[in-house]
Every structure is written in C-alpha cells, then in structure tokens.
Amino acid sequence: MNKTQFNINQLVRENVLGLMPYSSARDEYVSDGSEMIFLDANENPFENGVNRYPDPQQRNLKAVLAQQKSVSVQNILLGNGSDEVLDLLFRAFCEPKIDNIITLPPTYGMYKVLANINNIQNREVLLTESFEPNVKTILEAVNSNTKIIFLCSPNNPTGNSFSEERITQVLDRFDGLVVIDEAYIDFSDKESWIEKIKTYPNLIVTQTLSKAYGLAGIRLGVCYASEEIIAILNKIKPPYNVNELTQKRALERVMDFDKVNTEVSNILEERKKLITTLSQISFVEKIYETDANFILVKVDDADKRYDQLLQKGIVIRNRSTQPLCENTLRFTVGTPAENNALEKILKQL
Ligand SMILES: *Cc1c(COP(=O)(O)O)cnc(C)c1O
C-alpha cells in the first residue's frame, strides 16, 4: 500500500487506544537537577544506591543510544530483554482470539510462545530451502487480522541474514507491522534496518544487549520504531520495567564502545577458526553461512553427536526438531580456550 496513508491507530487494540497509562511519581515530577526533597514515592529515604525508583523513561541510556543509532529518543523503547519488548507488541496490537501473526520457521522460538500466551494465532510460513523468506507465500497467508510479521535477521538458528530485496518486498506489500529482530546484527557486516524506520512507518527493529554486548544477565532489550508506535508501547509498559542496576550497567557498556568492538572482533576471528575446524570433521556434512555468533551444521546423526559432546562436558544446541533443520547442531562461538577444547574433542570423536 501507499505508506503515506498508513495509520497506526487502525492497528492498535481498541482498549489500548483509549487507555490512560498509570502515572508514576517519577512521571509526574521530573527532576531538573536542582536539589529537591523527594517525599512523593513512599521510598525509604536512606541512601544505598538503589533506594529510589529508577527513571521510568531511562533518559540517560536512551540519549546515548539515540546518538549512536542516529535516531531521536522518541524512537526508542527499552524493555526487560527483547522478550518483554516483543510481548508489549502483542499486547498493544493483537486482539486475543481474533488477530494473527506470521512467523517464518525455523526461527526464534519466543514469537510462537508469546503468540500462545497472548492467545494469538501463529501462522507459520516456512523459509525456503536457502533459509530466505518466501514472500509470495507470506503474502498469501496474510488476512485482514494479520497484525505482525516477524523477520529474524540474522536468523536464529540458521545464522543467515535475509536478503534486503525480500525484506523490502514484505515491508512494501504488507499493511501491518513488520518486526525485524536484529539480536545478532553486531556480528554481521550488513547494515541495520534502524535507519529505515524513517521510510517505513510499519517497521519495528528490535535489538538486545544480550549477545554482542555481553549483558544477557541484566536483561535489556531495545525497540526502534516511529514516534507513534513508541508512544503506544509507552502507554502499556510497566512504569519501572528497566531497573536501576540494569540502566547503570547498560549505560557504562554502551559508552565503552571500543571494548564491545574488540570483543566482537575476537568472536568473529574465533568464528572463522571454528568454521575451519568444523570443515575438517568427518561427520560434519554441511556448514551453513552465518552472520551471527553461532554456527549451524548438518551432521550424520545429531542426537548421537550431541550426546557424545555432552559426555565430554560440552553443551551445544540440537536443532533437529525444527523444520528444515534435520540433523543439525548449533555451536555458539566461545572463548579461544573453549574453542580449542571443542576442537580437540571434535577431532577425537
Ligand atoms: C537471544 C535472542 C534474543 C534476545 O532476547 P533477550 O530477551 O533480549 O535476551 C532475541 N531474539 C533472538 C532471535 C535471539 O536469538
């Protein structure tokens, strides 16, 4: 459709459209930096670093992210991991028992889980044999209640990025929302789709500090979209969904850009070595292209090889139950020492 006619309000659930969000103490009085006495939120007044409620809008962290990604603060929503961000999308746009979403297996399992939790039909359209979105079939699966199409690129568990052309076709031809999950974008040399949120009012890009940024334990997911979409999500998010410790730690890390880059370079170097190693293993039948910090391989007997590695103290992921992934194993790239240990064991099997 002509995206100049796009009206987000037609996609929002009716109850969300009319919702008045909870107004927290920290929403009603925003500090301008002057010395004030805060007696508004029933906190314990004795300082211990976290006795105050956190900033519900995470201003400091968003300011840095906005600058790094060349977007406005109003284009950003932060959540307790991407999982919370994705759940907010369901709750804002998908009417239980009525609406549906489209996902493209083999892919990240949470889309389906969240669809089930929110009682939303999940229409599955398999990727092609080369793990690309099948645009024609996707568009055939769309009906007037299809609210969101989830594209995971680079895709988990396959590792590849989807072709720009196919993603563009979906964005152009689908009138609902398109979520591009970029959890692994920092390991890829492809451009992020973030800058395209200015072009496509139906585009939502999600990223996370759980992978390249090495902060899976603090739970921080990021959503980039139009101001209108972010405003809707802000209405329904829990006021203090990103805690103070997470905000602090995330801020330190995103400002330490060089360190993150160095670690990512190391991981990419190790990925290259691990691909070479795997290519020398007799029971490895195929190594799939990867733009992520993991490698999917097809082996002779995935269950057997998985158990053998487990016996030797190495835990990988057996992805064989996923469609198009028969007899596949997924290896996350570890430290040089971990990868050396893995290499030694693989060569013994
Ligand atoms: C790991 C992963 C995430 C991360 O989720 P968080 O909740 O932010 O830790 C998101 N999407 C995909 C595809 C992933 O593999």
From TrEMBL:
Cofactor(s) demanded: pyridoxal 5'-phosphate
Signal peptide stretch: none
Enzyme class: transferase
Catalyses which reaction(s): L-histidinol phosphate + 2-oxoglutarate = 3-(imidazol-4-yl)-2-oxopropyl phosphate + L-glutamate
Domain Aminotransferase class I/classII large: 48-340
Pfam families: Aminotran_1_2
Enzyme Commission number(s) of this protein: 2.6.1.9
Alphabetical keyword list: Amino-acid biosynthesis, Aminotransferase, Histidine biosynthesis, Pyridoxal phosphate, Transferase
Residue numbers of N6-(pyridoxal phosphate)lysine PTMs: K211
Protein family membership: Belongs to the class-II pyridoxal-phosphate-dependent aminotransferase family. Histidinol-phosphate aminotransferase subfamily.
Subunit structure: Homodimer.
The protein's name in its UniProt record: Histidinol-phosphate aminotransferase
Source organism of this protein record: Aquimarina mytili
Source lineage: Bacteria, Pseudomonadati, Bacteroidota, Flavobacteriia, Flavobacteriales
Gene transcribed to yield this protein: hisC
